[in-house]
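From the pipeline queue, job 12 of 40. The input is one protein chain; the requested action is below.

Action: predict structure.
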Amino acid sequence: MDLWKKSRSFFDQLISIFNEMKAAFANAAFFYARGMPHI
């Protein structure tokens, strides 16, 4: 069951990267919306 462990850690890495990208995107969208002149 070594292969299962390997794929498991790979998916964990993928999920953590996805979460980081999601957080960065939310931050960028927030700052972009705040910096825009509201009409």
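Job complete. The chain has a mean pLDDT of 89.
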